[in-house]
Amino acid sequence: MLSLYVAIYLQSRENLRFSVASSLKKPRPAVSAIFFYSNTVEVMSLEEVVLKAAKEAIIKASISPALDVVGSLRRAQGSESSEAAKIQLEAILKNIELATATTSAVCQDTGVPTFFVKLGDGFPIRSKALSILTEAVRQVTKELPLRPNTADPFTERNPGDNTGLGVPVFDVELFDGDYLQFTYVPKGGGSELPGKAMVLPPGVAFKELPRIVLESVIDAGPMPCPPVIVGIGIGPTLDAAAKLAKKAAALRPVGSRNQNPEVAKMEDALLRAVNKLGLGAHGVGGNITALDVHIEYAYRHPATFALAIVFSCWATRRATATVWPDGRYEVTAAPP
User: Fold this and answer.
1) Helix or strand holding residue 62 (H, E)
2) In the CATH scheme, what architecture does the domain 1-65+106-188+316-336 have?
3) What's the pLDDT tens digit per position in 236-261?
């Protein structure tokens, strides 16, 4: 969070009264907020606060992998036995260092802008939230900059600002609360290309699942820029399984385990099996092909077992912003 004070308008601007506080015991719906810097005062509406928080989250996610991913890459470098793979990991970590120091995109593929949004039913500007996040993408695309990654599939026209029909991608969850929280995940094309989704007969699904996962990793090879995070989704339909696999790969922190103990054991077993394949960083050979394997699941239809596999590259990027109705906000690269 910014090291500044936030003051809240308690009355209209015509009859201005405000209080300055570093924290509030009981948040109130606010008309606008005041940010005090060393020599200036900045008055911002709640819409402007959301835009500011969104731009900070997009930038933070674009210039470095998430904190847990960076830590895992460092551990991988220390435990990797292949000299060629160690050189690749050293280059990856140096790249992260330079990108962070220069506030530059950590990968030339700055991904498809995707927001996982938790929207409280008491947040004052619910109907404007998604349009504000879209505008943040437009602005950061020009200012950082980000590579324009959206193209019309029929005309190949690229609008140049990372927006378009269906983009940014929004996954919205409503909840009983008064704040807005969103995680920005810019996932690149290389890690999307080898993704798979299928529906299996339930009677053979668990027998076939390990083979399908391992063959998917082999088929992917260096394309998703390993070491990867393998996300596995199981559900009633293809789209449900794919969404779960995406969340497993992109949102779950490295080292986390599913709350179901049996599923957690499967995650551990699959991680060991994937790393025994020996692909290594960028496919040069080595004992760290995956940083982790995550499984998310939902109840299925009795006649179907939908399975999806999604890869996330070494540059798994995400940043989470939380905005309160009184104008306070914080942005973090820690897991949501």
Assistant:
1) helix 46-63
2) 2-Layer Sandwich (3.30)
3) 999 999 999 999 999 999 999 999 99
